[in-house]
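Why do we care about 3D structure at all? Because function follows from shape, and shape follows, mostly, from sequence. That is the central idea of this module. The next example makes it concrete: a single protein chain, its amino acid sequence, and then its structure expressed as tokens.
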Amino acid sequence: MTRLHVGCAMWNHKAWSGRFLPPSLPARERLRAYAGWCNAVEGNTTFYATPARDTVATWARQTGPGFRFVVKLPKVVTHERRFAGVEAEMRAFLDAIEPLGERAVLWTQLPASFGPPDVDALVRFLRRLPAARRRAVEVRHPGFFTDPGSTSLLERALAAADAEWVPFDTTVFFRSPPSSEAEQEAWDRKPRLPRRTRALTDRPIVRYLGRDSVEETVAGWRPWTAVVAGWLREGRSPTVFLHTPDNHDAPSLARRFHDDVRALVPGLGALPEPEPVEPATLF
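And the structure:
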């Protein structure tokens, strides 16, 4: 069954308390509350440290079978050693996320220095991953986007490994100078690359960065609603992650994106209604 997954860069944010998540919610229950708003999440924390298997098991218990985790490979694998001599680290990582089962997608995010000459190393690495594991790759070297030969080279490599190419669309964000501290930080850190809308597998993944302004963010994603609607009509099951520099409204924006796509694809099922957030009390 085709399904649109939408989500955010995290399942907990200070600004969400009392709005999207109940105030003073224990850490062990925050993912469950978040999963009432969204049906996917980026696993960015795994980039910095491989979690304990028991911790991941609590993630699995807090989410239903239709929830999707896109978990980032450790930086020691992708950035520090660039796939060389990482067998022990990958065994530990794969064992840790095993409780998520088919809900987990392995997300290989590569640094901007990883260019077309390095594709062979990526191919060898992808071949060693378990065949049953879904995999996706995000590249940031400009050559993959601007040189047709390099684009084709990477597409062939990913297609051979049944891996998706994850675009991080920042084009809307970089149209005008930053107007807040959060936007300035993103301006300095986020990649500036052309928008890419071609899917390689039946489960495309998109990361979209808007602005702190809700209106600008919504206006900027309109090209994506058409693309995602087309993928759904083709029988694909895409995942779209909504980012803004401050992420204050990210859960509601993710749901709004889902609603906009559903208006184009009436057969798409609605997201479940989140539980009401009760206001904090003194007693």
